[in-house]
Design goal:
Layout: H1 17-35, H2 43-46, H3 49-58, E1 65-69, H4 75-79, H5 118-131, E2 139-144, H6 151-163, E3 167-173, H7 184-193, H8 198-210, H9 217-234, H10 238-242, E4 246-252, H11 256-267, E5 272-278, H12 286-290, E6 301-304, E7 310-313, H13 321-335, E8 339-343, H14 353-358, E9 363-365, H15 370-382, E10 386-392, H16 393-396, H17 400-408, E11 415-419, H18 436-441, E12 447-449, H19 454-466, E13 471-474, E14 496-499, E15 504-509, H20 513-525, E16 530-534, E17 537-539, H21 543-552, E18 556-563, H22 568-578, E19 586-591, H23 601-607, H24 612-635
Parallel strand pairs: 1-2, 2-3, 3-5, 4-5, 8-9, 8-10, 10-11, 11-13, 12-13, 15-16, 15-18, 18-19
Antiparallel strand pairs: 6-7, 12-17, 14-16
Helix pairs in contact: 3-11, 5-6, 8-9, 13-19, 15-17, 20-24
Length: 636
């Protein structure tokens, strides 16, 4: 095998063409092997094998700069940058990250998990290298066509066209985001695909246009318009040339020799270049190329045929919170014709396919444009609709300004469904939804909620849609849980008292409700009576219940799957402090002030003391310390 011998990109230059093609074959086989062990990003990585090899053969990224955007297409890059021997550990706790990670390798410059930022960062690197005396260094950003509509991409392209520096942006066009791409820019790319090689078409077009006589007056004006129209019709790259880029392509992204040739040609172009590369998501695996949506991050492969045919997948059967939320969204769309739904290229991730199919006039996938999604929803709400913005917690951060300016400042009834809130497991720190409690709680008029279990999901969504103002509902990437009880209705700012205890109270916000109930049951068997309150609301807080717990029980523990900085526990401390009560017997459990590594959600919760045993341990230690303090006080 060749792949195990590649310890660094420099080793690629020792291989001949036949060996390079064999290496590409082995890299795809390795991706399949890892998918037989655990779920991981698949189709996107199969599509960039040749592009990755061509880049490392053309440039020297020990000096030059390379940023992959979005970073889930980083696996081939990891395989040839000294990480092959650890590749099996990818997306496991303590193993390789499924995204670029500068701590793993100097070849990973940024931890890129959100789409669209590579162009701006790579341009910044180029300018910095020039200012620091290294103008010879090249800077390359690889951006997928699904990420290209992001506003920050066009902000960077606009700036790069103005600066006119030597700078390469590679448009990796596979006609996909995670789901099929949407929007007018996709049509522009498709038009470019209709030409064989844009450069050849452009030369032919110039010959045609040069034969058109230049006349005066209205005739001249009409011919000018026709010339522009012919350019727009025959090419898809005029947009980028108008922005100041030299557009090259589209070219075959799986022709390794052709890619190398084109990269050498554009490498030393004196100015910004956009190289349009056509790839196939899932290249080399028949089902993955035919169904790149399913095979973006498929279940584990149970059996693979000799021709890389996936014979069977291991299917999970458990219902997730995403399922409960999408089902509730579907139901409210059926019941209320004023309800609309928008997502940001996450139709599959948010499990909205049935919504998209059955309510096409009220479903809007805006692409990877979260800021637009929120402002778009604000416009709909202003006109009298009841829009739902269904977005991952970590991605909604990109729309912080629109939540402020367009929604909460106007007090508009936009409902935010924050999927993947809390710890997302193997996706790691770029995707953990740790901060939404804090950033949503900041804004006046915003209601901040979290269902404690499955029974809360649908009623909480209905409450949000009836509320006359903005509201958010967060839920985790986890299987649904259910606490058997007489379910209390959802009322603004009202917690649900599950049980009261004499030795202490757990105030839990969100998905760890059942965990806290189990912890209380375990402690009760030890003779410790601990009550549990399903807070439901971080804002407005149920001050009456919180203050009662603080005044009547010797210990209060707040629990949340979110950051402790400014989160639910902070809200409790603020309320207790404002009431003039002692806060010394309040303990907060949550995510500490650091970025949390990747690993299985259960592993990470246990490490943070947010599992049953960790909560029990915290309560035992606090009560023991209180007993020792009281004994010491009596003895003195």
């Amino acid at each position: 095998m060749i792949l195990p011998t590649i310890k660094a990109p420099a080793d690629l230059r020792k291989l001949n063409d036949a060996e390079l093609h064999q290496l590409a074959h082995e890299m795809r086989d390795e991706l399949i092997r890892v998918l037989s062990i655990r779920p991981a990003h698949f189709a996107s990585n199969l599509g960039v094998v040749e592009l990755c090899l061509a880049l490392h053969l053309t440039f020297d990224f020990t000096k030059d700069r390379l940023i992959w955007d979005t970073g889930h297409q980083i696996y081939p890059h990891k395989l040839i940058t000294g990480r092959y021997d650890r590749f099996e550990s990818i997306r496991t706790k303590g193993g390789l990250m499924g995204y670029p990670n500068p701590e793993e390798s100097p070849f990973d410059l940024f931890m890129t998990g959100h789409a669209g930022c590579a162009t701006a960062c790579a341009l910044g690197l180029k300018i910095a290298d020039e200012l620091l005396g290294h103008p010879e260094r090249h800077s390359v950003a690889v951006v997928g066509d699904g990420a290209f509509p992001s506003g920050i991409v066009f902000e960077a392209l606009n700036n790069a066209g103005h600066l006119k520096r030597k700078f390469l942006v590679i448009l990796n066009d596979n006609k996909m985001s995670i789901c099929p791409r949407v929007g007018a820019l996709a049509t522009c790319f498709d038009r470019a695909r209709l030409t064989n090689i844009y450069q050849g078409s452009k030369r032919n077009l110039k010959k045609i246009l040069n034969k058109i006589p230049i006349l005066g007056g209205m005739a001249s004006h009409a011919l000018d318009q026709m010339r522009d129209g012919l350019k727009a019709l025959l090419t898809g790259g005029m947009l980028f040339e108008e922005l100041g880029f030299h557009y090259v392509g589209p070219i075959d992204g799986h022709d390794l020799n052709g890619l190398r040739s084109w990269l050498r040609k554009v490498k030393d172009h004196n100015g910004p270049v956009l190289l349009h590369v056509l790839t196939v998501k899932g290249q080399g695996v028949p089902q993955a190329s035919d169904d790149p949506v399913t095979f973006h991050t498929p279940p584990v492969f149970e059996k693979v045929g000799p021709d890389r045919t996936i014979v069977s997948l291991k299917r999970g059967g458990s219902k997730a919170y995403t399922d409960a939320a999408s089902s509730a969204i579907y139901q409210v769309l059926q019941d209320n014709p004023r309800v609309t739904v928008m997502t940001a290229a996450m139709c599959q991730g948010n499990k909205l396919e049935k919504v998209r199919t059955d309510f096409p006039d009220r479903f809007f996938d805006v692409g990877i444009c979260e800021s637009h999604a929120v402002a778009f929803a604000a416009g709909q709400a202003k006109a009298g609709l009841r829009p739902i913005v269904d977005v991952y917690s970590t991605f909604l951060q990109r729309a912080f300004d629109q939540i402020f300016q367009e929604v909460t400042l106007q007090n508009l009834p936009v409902t935010f469904c924050l999927d993947r809130a809390g710890l997302t497991g193997p996706d790691g720190p770029t995707h953990h939804g740790c901060f939404d409690i804090t950033y949503m709680r900041l804004f006046p008029n915003m209601v901040v909620m979290a269902p404690g279990d499955e029974l809360d999901v649908a009623p909480m969504l209905r409450f949000a849609l009836q509320h006359d103002g903005p509201a958010s509902m967060r839920y985790p990437k986890a299987g649904v849980e259910k606490v058997e009880r007489g379910h209390a209705p959802i009322e603004l700012g009202q917690a649900e008292i599950h049980e009261w205890g004499t030795d202490g109270t757990i105030l839990v916000f969100g998905s760890l409700f059942l965990t806290c109930v189990k912890a209380a049951e375990k402690l009760r068997q030890e003779g410790i009576e601990i009550g549990v309150v399903n807070a439901r609301f971080a804002k407005p807080l149920d001050r009456a219940t919180v203050l009662r717990a603080v005044e009547e029980t010797p210990l209060v523990v707040t629990v949340e799957e979110g950051t402790l900085e400014g989160g639910f526990g902070s809200a409790v401390l603020e309320a207790v402090h404002s009431a003039g009560l002692d806060t010394r017997h309040i303990i907060r459990l949550g995510i500490p002030d650091r970025f949390i590594e990747h690993g299985e959600r259960g592993e990470l919760l246990a490490d943070l003391g947010l599992d049953v045993e960790g909560i029990c341990r915290t309560i035992r230690q606090a009560l023991e310390k209180r007993t020792e303090s009281r004994a010491w006080a009596l003895g003195n």
